[in-house]
Amino acid sequence: MASRPEPRPGVLAIDAYVPGKSAAPGVPKVHKLSSNETPLGPSPKAVEAVQKAARELELYPDGAATALREAIAGKYGLDPARIVCGAGSDEVLNLLAHAFIGPGDEGLFTTHGFLVYKIAILAAGGLPVVAEEKDFTADVDAILAKVTARTKIVFLANPNNPTGTYLPFDEVKRLHAALPPTVLLVLDAAYAEYVRRNDYASGLELVAESDNVVMTRTFSKIYGLAGLRLGWMVGPAHAIDAVNRIRSPFNVNAPAIAAGVAAIADEAHVAAAVAHNEEWLPWLTREIGALGLAVTPSVGNFILIHFPANAGRTAKDADAFLTSRGLVLRAVGAYGLPNCLRMTVGGAEANRLLVKALTEFMKPERANA
Ligand SMILES: *Cc1c(COP(=O)(O)O)cnc(C)c1O
Q1: Cβ-count burial of 338 within 10 angstroms (0-12 exposed, 13-18 middle, 19+ buried)?
Q2: How far apart (Å, rounded) are the C-alpha atoms in residues 211 and 192?
Q3: Most exposed: 155, 160, 218, 261, by fewest CB within 10 Å?
Q4: Which of 134-138, 195-199, 235-239, 362-366 has the lowest mean pLDDT?
Q5: Which residues, in sequence order, are CB contacts of 21 under 8 Å at separation 6+?
Q6: Ligand 1 contact via 231 beta carbon (within 6 Å)
């Protein structure tokens, strides 16, 4: 007999998600470049909406988040009935796993896929199955090779975090076409707004014409509302129905709903964030590459920097070196990338400081190297 309540089998085998660091002890000014947050902050209109909503905190929110679903539907030309909002897209991803995966079922994702997928699959009692990537990029054939009669969900972040790579829409369509109709394809398009490639699409078209594709989106990244926790999904009626049955009735709070509506209306703010990224993403890729460090080509608002294995130059060394200068990047060992750090595209000052610090870090005469 156990002497205390025990979680059901498997729960304690889950490694909890470890968020990016935010502190650099003893450093006066910290630049947090560890969680892909926008350096531009939220839209002032969203902030105003939150302040207004703060005056009515005694009231329950609209459990259906109607105003927000209508705003999203209006922006993307969708049916609001096909949208579910969540406390971040993390919640939506978890709801999908819990709705479609049970004990013995398999959930698929790729080698360096977003860690939340694995946690959500395990939490639902399922079996995580990993498909090998090629050049840090999802590989459709490798994914298809891992599909079995037990596969219930394929999670695909496009673009992927932490690699920043993406699959052209033709490849996503090829993946979908070859999947059994019983497998749900979850397209996580958290960084879609940042992508500037003619062959990319977030997947709305595929969602519209399929019975087994959903897309998830977030307000945490380009909209700068990570602290409020707001995300959404769009999908076929049957999937929306399933998720609505298991989500908590008031999963999205009132200030978040109000902020989301205001943020969607502020298109200039999003455009400014895109322009900022278009300026600094290539600059960082080039400058850091010129130091002799490999940078995986990214279409998101972050880059994956590869460090050598020799003592004094490792990702761990770089992390310590940069942190001591107030530059906080993301260690990605948990993603199977122990020799890499992920850096969010920051503001101009942070980006310049980062390149300066890495230049120093890579100097041949630096002690210890
Ligand atoms: C940041 C991120 C999300 C968004 O998570 P939220 O819960 O909406 O903050 C989803 N997927 C990927 C791949 C991400 O990097």
Answers
A1: middle
A2: 22
A3: 261
A4: 362-366
A5: 34, 323, 328, 330, 331
A6: yes
Q: Are 139 and 184 in contact (CB under 8 A)?
A: no
CATH class of 11-41+268-367: alpha beta
Going from the C-alpha of 101 to that of each of 123, 276, 336, the distances in angstroms are 10, 40, 24
Ligand 1 atom closest to the CA of 87, numbered from 1 = 7
Q: Does residue 262 contact residue 73 with C-beta atoms inside 8 Å?
A: no
Whether 92 lines ligand 1, by a CB cut-off of 6 Å, is no
For ligand 1, mutation pick of 188, 225, 343 (most atoms within 8 Å of CB):
188
In 3D space, the residue among 257, 240, 209 whose CA is nearest the CA of residue 70 turns out to be 257
Q: 44-266: what fold?
A: Aspartate Aminotransferase; domain 2 (3.40.640)
Q: Is the CB of 162 under 6 A from ligand 1?
A: no
Least confident of 46-55, 92-101, 358-367: 358-367
Q: What is the pLDDT of residue 368?
A: 52
> From the CB of 166, is ligand 1 less than 6 Å away?
no
Q: Does ligand 1 have an atom closer than 6 angstroms to the CB of 218?
A: yes
Mutational pocket test of ligand 1: of 68, 84, 161, the residue with most ligand atoms within 8 Å of the beta carbon: 161
Q: Do domains 11-41+268-367 and 44-266 have the same CATH topology?
A: no
**For residue 274, pLDDT beyond 70:** yes
Could you tell me the two tokens for 263?
A: 């943020």
Q: Give the start-to-end residue ranges of the domains of the chain.
A: 11-41+268-367, 44-266
Over range 278-303, report the average pLDDT.
98
Task: Give residue 220 CA to ligand 1 midpoint distance, Å.
Answer: 7
Residue nearest to atom 3 of ligand 1 (CA): 190
